[in-house]
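BUG: 3D viewer hangs when loading the predicted structure for this chain

Environment: internal workstation, default settings.
Expected: structure renders.
Actual: progress bar stalls at 90%.

Input used:
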Amino acid sequence: MGNRRTMISVRRTVLAVLSAWHGLAAVKNACDLCAAFGFAPAARFGSHNFAAMGKLLAPLRLPRAVLGFLLAGVIAIEASAALAFARDDDETAFALAFALFGSFAVIDEAMADYELDETHREILVLVLLAYLVVARLPKNPSSKIDPDSH
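Structure tokens produced before the viewer hung:
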């Protein structure tokens, strides 16, 4: 493609930041999960989400293995969202992010943990705002935005 210049766009920047953020969250949660089950030493880099899940779901008396399975599911969704954002598959990426943080907000409400609920709602709103921004921007930065197309 010869002299084709790569243009940095707001859309790609938003998707790249979301990809990096979800990817980092997946890595931190994976470190935390490995430490929780003794596969790796506890690290400052860990998310501490395994302990937070245990505290939140304590009234349900779930076995540690179930908590581990749940956190592994979160890691899979975060990693999948990170990959989808990186690949410019924004519909899949945003659907995964909405589903994840929407589920967290519902679980927080069900368990009456309003401190976690506040954090998860803030993240959900951030992702929703990012979706609205990305939806208004063209995939090709040199094309014009047609306000009637949305």
